[in-house]
Amino acid sequence: MSKSQAKIWQRFTLAERLSRFAVFLGLAVALSLSLRTVEIIPEFLFDAPTQIADLLTRMWPMDLDYYRGGIHAAMMETLHIASLGTLLSLVMAIPVGILGANNIVRFPLLNWLSKLILVSSRSVNTLVWALLFVAVFGPGALAGTICIAFRSVGFVGKLFAEALEESDPGPVEALHAAGAPWASVFLKGYWPQVAPAFWAIFLFRWDINVRESAVIGLVGAGGLGMVLDTALNLFHWDRVSVILLSIFVVVIIAELLVTAIRKRII
């Protein structure tokens, strides 16, 4: 075979190269449009290190005495919002998750209705839910609890439905063959298989909700966020630093607690 007739090996075909070029070109166009929309001001960007240093100077020394009088009660409220909201989300997410499992409920209309509820819950940001429920219930912990619950339904319900769909059909078929009622089939066939995943989902969501409960207060939904918003508006930076440190400590403790519980029950 002559050199002119030798085949040249190429990693990608012409269509694949064109597709990759189109993707990279689209990303470049999207990035350029985003930069124009953001309207970055170079003067502010170059001045950022100076402003950060000035802000840190104002935050130090911390007003540690403010913790007892203004932060501790708000921190407890934040934990209560996260815990009650997570428990309330379980009450709503379990039946919705069961309806969304195709191997349990074999009615496409109910499956689609369940998926619509789960997607609707996840598609709305937590702060948007908080603004909505603050408008309905007024500022405070009640709005925050309902917000956390509705935002968590989509997360818990989706993962619970997927765990049910991935369960082994063998024990379920054996119970059906023995004439067991639906409740017994679910409790004896499905639940033992999905229980570890369910508790892992519950603990993981509670961990997330502890963090989100500290933020939704910025729009009036109770907890540490309301105290943080007040300190920011009054330019009490020494108190802001204590609040941020408290949020950091709570998140770390929640992470360690969730990890310890998962090792024991899962």
Summary tags:
extended, MetI-like fold
H and E string: HHHHHHHHHH
- The average pLDDT is 83
Strand content: under 5%
Radius of gyration from CA coordinates: 26 Å
Task: Work out the count of structural domains.
Answer: 2
Distance between the termini: 65 Å
Quaternary structure annotation: single chain
- Classified by CATH, the class of the largest domain is Mainly Alpha
Q: How can the largest sheet be summarized?
A: none
CATH fold description of the largest domain: MetI-like fold
Instruction: Count every beta strand, where a strand is a DSSP E run of 2 or more residues.
Output: 0
The percentage helix is over 70%
Overall outline:
extended
The number of helical elements comes to 10
The CATH architecture name of the largest domain reads: Orthogonal Bundle
Query: Uncertain segments of ≥5 residues (pLDDT<50)?
Result: none
- The CATH superfamily of the largest domain turns out to be MetI-like
What is the SS-derived class? mainly alpha
